[in-house]
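Retry 2 of 3 after timeout on previous attempt. Resubmitting structure tokens to design endpoint.
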């Protein structure tokens, strides 16, 4: 029985709790879309996503949002996030409990057995079930749009063989003529590598830091010619 609350894992504690056999989220019956969104683990390394090593969206777990589904919130907090932070392992049964709730609340029978899009899962759980505000504000062509995650769309580019996340985000924003209206509290990015069939890149290198200076709308930047504050931007 895990305690009611536990802080996200950091540094040596994260390595000690999360690395090794029988760690992470146990996969079962096409659950990878959800496992990867909540936590992703490889053979000798860990890449935390929403909860294991960060508290940026912990409000999803504790705040009494006006539209919040208390049952989904408690399952996510008590059966998934807390065990992940304390023991480093989440049983597939706990994930199925959440998937059954998503099937019931989302009026979609395939959440328990089919491969789903991570964006669909995140939008359902954040917007419809927990009622939190959108995490991103984007602008394109003078029109603003709110969303919970950003999916990279771009044409295949021959000069990018093994790209990093920084390159993909910058090129995707450029090709779609997008800007961030404000600095996001949480920037969730879906890579162009997902599903059983589609793999645009064989590998993508994680960028440990993401520079969004050139992606921000009306952000003061230095002119690359004279060094003063820039007044014009060339794509």
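Retry 2 succeeded. Sequence:
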């Amino acid at each position: 029985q895990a305690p009611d609350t536990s802080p996200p894992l950091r540094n040596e504690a994260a390595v000690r709790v999360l690395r090794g056999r029988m760690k992470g989220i146990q996969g079962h019956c096409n659950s990878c879309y959800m496992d990867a969104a909540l936590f992703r683990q490889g053979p000798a390394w860990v890449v935390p996503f929403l909860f294991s090593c960060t508290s940026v969206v912990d409000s999803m777990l504790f705040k009494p949002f006006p539209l919040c589904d208390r049952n989904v919130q408690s399952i996510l907090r008590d059966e998934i996030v807390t065990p992940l932070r304390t023991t480093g392992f989440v049983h597939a049964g706990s994930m199925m409990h959440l998937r059954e709730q998503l099937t019931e609340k989302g009026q979609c029978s395939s959440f328990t057995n089919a491969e789903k899009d991570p964006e669909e899962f995140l939008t359902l759980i954040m917007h419809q079930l927990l009622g939190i505000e959108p995490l991103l504000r984007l602008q394109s062509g003078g029109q603003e749009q709110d969303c919970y995650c950003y999916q990279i769309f771009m044409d295949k580019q021959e000069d990018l063989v093994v790209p990093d996340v920084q390159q993909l985000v910058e090129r995707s924003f450029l090709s779609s003529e997008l800007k961030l209206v404000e600095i996001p509290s949480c920037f969730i990015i879906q890579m162009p590598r997902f599903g059983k069939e589609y793999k645009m890149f064989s590998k993508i290198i994680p960028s440990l830091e993401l520079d969004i200076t050139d992606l921000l709308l009306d952000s003061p930047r230095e002119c690359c010619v004279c060094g003063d504050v820039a007044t014009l931007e060339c794509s």
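Attempt log closed. The longest strand covers residues 136-140.
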